[in-house]
Amino acid sequence: MKKILIFLLAVAGSIDAWAQDIEERTRILDEVVIMPDASGRANAIMGQVALRAKENRARMNGFTARANAFLYSQDMDFIPQVMPGKIMFLLKMAARLTRHGALLDYALEQQKINTQLYADIRYADGKATFHNQRVVKSTPAMPKKVQEQLLSIASVNPYDVIYGEGSLLNPKNREKYDVSIQETIVEDGDTIKVLAFRNKNEKSKETILLHIVEGDWGIKHMAVKSRFGSQIMDCTNVGNGIYLPTYYALNPNPVSLDEFLAEARKKVAEAKEKPSRMTRKTLDRLEKVVNGDRKYYPRIEIKCRLSYYKR
After folding, report:
1. Residue ranges of the domains in the chain?
2. Which of 61, 188, 255, 308 has the highest CB neighbour number within 10 Å of its CB?
3. What is the pLDDT of residues 219-277, one digit of tens each?
4. Do residues 303 and 70 touch, judged by C-beta distance below 8 A?
5. CA atoms within 13 A on the CB side of 176
6. How far apart are CA 107 and CA 97, in angstroms?
7. Per-residue pLDDT tens for 22-34?
């Protein structure tokens, strides 16, 4: 799933984005207070997590995961109708550079997409291999090339998403954040250290919470908000203190809702004054957007549930 995020960050480029929670249970960052970590306690905890993650990677042999992922989008076809050509150029150029042009074109053409993906994931020598990976069903029917691109960006080791070199366990990645211990809580009998990270670059509007189980030093929950959207991940102890992702949700935002609404108002006004290539049906939907009907606006949601078994 990390490749999905990388792709969407590239697609977003320098475009402003609006972050919306997927569910109330995301427990995500409404009032995060970042205090200076003068004693280095937060970084010491992250060091413990990194050490345990390295040990657990070698103990993953014999584990198999079954992944069911769901991709949902709506009203993405509004974007080419409304947004300026320079924004569409950036979106499509980024998609083609990351070899996902067919997937983006498909999404921008459809009013709604409902797709289910399935895969078996087997762990050995710290690596994950995918088997039986396929699109189970899709409405509307998804072309083969689009399916291949979607499956390619979903072929990521779930362990690496949360414990890999690209994660906050890497000290170099933590350098761009202010970090503090937000609070200590008790949950299901476990003592949880809640660490808060805020990107030093204010333009990113990125804040991350990690819930870390003291003693096992596994990540139980992660929540991220940024100008590119929001994501959450819940992890479960699958045995011997190994915490692995069992639920993942990503709500990327390829364009800013505020910017989209501003452009939509212009397009609706123009269409009423002179003939437009826009269909009457599309215009009616856009008018609902302009009038505040939140059922209509561009949105993508990606959710994945994983179950683990020991062979």
Report:
1. 2-310
2. 255
3. 999 999 987 789 999 999 998 899 999 999 998 876 777 888 899 999 899 888 887 77
4. yes
5. 14
6. 17
7. 333 344 444 455 5
Nearest Cα to Cα of residue 167 among 36, 35, 46, 38: 46
The per-residue pLDDT for range 58-105, each reduced to its tens digit, is 888 889 999 999 999 999 998 888 888 888 888 888 888 888 889 889
The CA distance from 5 to 190, in Å, is 30
Cis-peptide into 158, omega within 30 deg: no
Residue 249 is which amino acid? Answer: A
Q: How far apart are CA 303 and CA 247, in angstroms?
A: 7
Distance CA 224, CA 241 (A): 24
Alpha carbon distances (Å) from 155 to 87, 119, 242: 29, 9, 21
In 3-state terms, what secondary structure has residue 151? helix
Encoded amino acid at 287, one letter: E
Long-range contact set of residues 99-104: C-beta below 8 Å, sequence gap at least 24: 99/149, 99/152, 100/7, 100/149, 100/153, 102/143, 102/145, 102/146, 102/149, 103/146, 103/149, 103/150, 103/153, 104/11
Average pLDDT over the chain reads 84
